[in-house]
Design brief:
The protein has 432 residues and is α+β, with helices and mostly antiparallel strands. It has nine helices and 24 strands. Strands 1, 2, 3, 4, 5, 6, 7, 8, 9, 12, 13, 14, 15 and 16 form a 14-stranded mixed sheet that branches. α2 links the parallel β1 and β2. The radius of gyration is 23 Å and the shape is globular.
Length: 432
């Protein structure tokens, strides 16, 4: 007897959500249940929530706010916020006293040490006032202090996010390298490994044919309800990424900020996306284990492929860094205070007394420097007959799991509505 493929409509899933009978799980819950020996069928899951949190350099803030009274100045030609150069325009807003501008997430402040656009976006979301300095076409300088709530428009646009295939990095050279892929100078001669990507949680990994989401699909950006605009920059079918937009006013600081590397600051951003299980093919493509997700090892200089492992080799259910403050009390000289890439240490009397979990990235830098006070199994890999330690994670799987959980509960409570995309995602066959 021939059985027709199982499928369901999005309206069927929404009806179950409204009646409180929908089965919604995060990818991590799905994997954990399978690991515990549970058999999960198409009928058992209506929606899977996916997420990723990591360094995403391709973000920018788009702002519009009033600087002076109308009819005062023609337009603003130069603007900075907390010392970060912005790009005014394209709308001149002639004689309106309003400034439209763009701030890149990677732009560095000319006034503040270790401060970039990612730092600024988080401070705005935290409710802090920022210093705006503008110069008009007449040459007049205007200074103003402003909060996010006082801005007429503030949205975050991502130009390249949630990349499906991230990489691990290995320095194959005979010298150390300062790089965005390491917090400390990257040691030479293939002696340490860093990596990026949340592996099995990534939305593109769980729907590789983009059947459940597309142009106009709702998602979360740093906890704020936004939309998928379309394919991002530098992508192709085998390595897709997305472009998004979301209002900053609804974002949560813990999912954003800046990350210090040995070659400057990189912005942090988090994306969560629901995958309605509309047919058996979508269900069959949901990642069953981190072993199913390949992780390519690249040489740091030149980016040639030198090996391949899986995300099971680097994650293995170790997501959360533990801290023992007792180990710090008798420490004569702390090796870690100046090196936390997200400034997550709470310092008291010259020693680390606690961890600000809203800032901690679970990256492992502190564990590398002081394994007595910090506990996290960073793992190691076999490479060319040697055991190579993993010294840095540039994605926060723990934070991604938390965001996927938030999205799940928002859907169940009717705070996040599932909608059909308005268009499909069309990716190039290859990147030329």
């Amino acid at each position: 007897m021939f059985l027709l493929p199982k499928k369901r409509k999005l309206s069927d899933i929404r009806r179950k959500i409204n009646t409180g009978t929908a089965n919604i799980v995060t990818v991590q819950e799905f994997i954990n249940r399978l690991d515990n020996g549970e058999r999960i069928k198409f009928e058992d899951v209506d929606v899977i929530t996916t997420a990723t949190k990591g360094l995403m350099s391709g973000i920018m803030g788009v702002f519009s706010f009033k600087m002076v009274a109308p009819k005062t100045l023609r337009k603003f030609t130069e603007i900075s916020i907390n010392g970060i150069p912005a790009f005014p325009g394209p709308c001149p807003n002639e004689y309106l006293g309003i400034a439209d501008l763009i701030v890149y997430g990677t732009a560095q402040s000319q006034e503040r040490d270790r401060y970039c656009g990612g730092s600024l976006f988080r401070e705005l979301v935290e409710g802090k006032a920022v210093e705006i300095v503008a110069k008009s076409s007449e040459g007049e300088k205007v200074e103003k202090e402003m909060t996010l709530e006082e801005m007429q428009y503030a949205k975050l646009i991502g130009t390249r996010q949630a990349i499906k295939n991230y990489n691990a990095m290995l320095n194959c050279e005979s010298y150390k390298v300062d790089t965005i892929f390491s917090c400390l100078p990257f040691e030479a001669n293939k002696t340490e490994l860093t990596f990026s990507g949340c592996g099995a949680l990534n939305p593109f990994q769980n729907d590789p044919k983009f059947q459940s989401f597309g142009v106009g699909s709702p998602l979360l950006v740093n906890g704020s309800k936004g939309y998928l605009i379309g394919p991002g920059t530098r992508n192709y079918v085998a390595k897709p990424n997305m472009m998004t937009i979301a209002p900053m006013i609804q974002m949560k600081p813990e999912y954003m900020g800046a990350f210090k590397t040995s070659y400057g600051l990189e912005p942090i951003c988090s994306i969560a996306l629901p995958i309605p299980i509309l047919n058996e093919e979508i269900f069959d493509n949901i990642i069953k284990s981190d072993k199913d997700v390949n992780l390519t090892i690249l040489s740091l200089v030149g980016r040639e492929k030198v090996g391949e492992i899986t995300y099971a080799d680097v994650w293995d259910n170790n997501f959360f860094m533990k801290f023992d403050s007792k180990a710090c009390k008798d420490c004569e000289e702390c090796k870690t205070i100046d090196y936390c890439p997200t400034n997550a240490f709470i310092i008291k009397d010259g020693v680390i007394s606690a961890i600000d979990r809203s800032r901690c990235f679970n990256c492992g830098t502190c564990v590398r420097l002081c394994p007595d006070a910090f506990k996290l199994d960073l793992k190691s890999i076999e490479f060319e007959g040697s055991e190579i330690p993993i010294v840095l994670r540039q994605s926060d799987r723990f934070g991604a799991i938390k965001l996927a959980e938030e999205l799940k509960h928002m859907i169940l409570k009717g705070e996040f509505l599932l909608k059909k995309p308005t268009g499909t995602l069309d990716f190039a066959e290859s990147l030329k």
